[in-house]
Amino acid sequence: MSDAAAMNDWNQQIIAEFRANEGKVSGPFEGAPMVIVSHAGARTGTVRLTPLMALVEGDSLVIFASKGGAPDNPDWFHNLVANPDTTVEYGTESFPVRARVAEGDEREDLWTRQKLAYPQFQGYEDATDRIIPVVVLDRV
């Protein structure tokens, strides 16, 4: 099985668990706020679903394009930049959002808060030379 196929199977298991348990999952994400982000492919338009840890910021949700510290950004990040109007699932709700990349002080504040709450994000930062993008999902 390819790495992409294995990741897709793993994501599908997390999505199924999320939906069966009102937005809660076990394993490495147990207790963490989770969101399922729908995103249309930047080139293909194919709609995909990606489960991600989130930071709740008022009415917005914040996600982090860490990709486990990989040298490149995840596909979902490129897709949201190209197609920022989408939907998310959070808890038992599904609602429309508009994605925007946080910049400057806003990015630094959100990123620092995520690293303090979930220290593995510091490890992701240490593992890569890129600046990990922070994406705010604002309800519309």
Quick structural gist:
By secondary structure, this protein is an alpha+beta fold. The chain has a single domain, classed as Electron Transport, Fmn-binding Protein, Chain A (Pnp Oxidase, Chain A, Roll), CATH 2.30.110. It is built from 4 helices and 7 strands.
What does this structure look like?
By secondary structure, the chain is of the alpha+beta class. The chain has four helices and seven strands; from the N terminus they run αββββαββααβ. A seven-stranded antiparallel sheet has the order 2-1-5-6-7-4-3, sandwiched between helices. The termini are far apart.
Descriptive labels:
single chain; 140 residues; Pnp Oxidase, Chain A; 4 helices
CATH topology tier name: Pnp Oxidase, Chain A
Gyration radius, to the nearest Å?
14 Å
Terminus-to-terminus distance: 39 Å
Helices and strands, in order, run as: HEEEEHEEHHE
Beta fraction: 25-35%
Helices, strands, pairings?
Elements lengths: L2 H18 L13 E7 L6 E7 L1 E3 L2 E5 L10 H8 L2 E6 L2 E9 L2 H14 L2 H8 L6 E6 L1
Antiparallel strand pairs: 1-2, 1-5, 3-4, 4-7, 5-6, 6-7
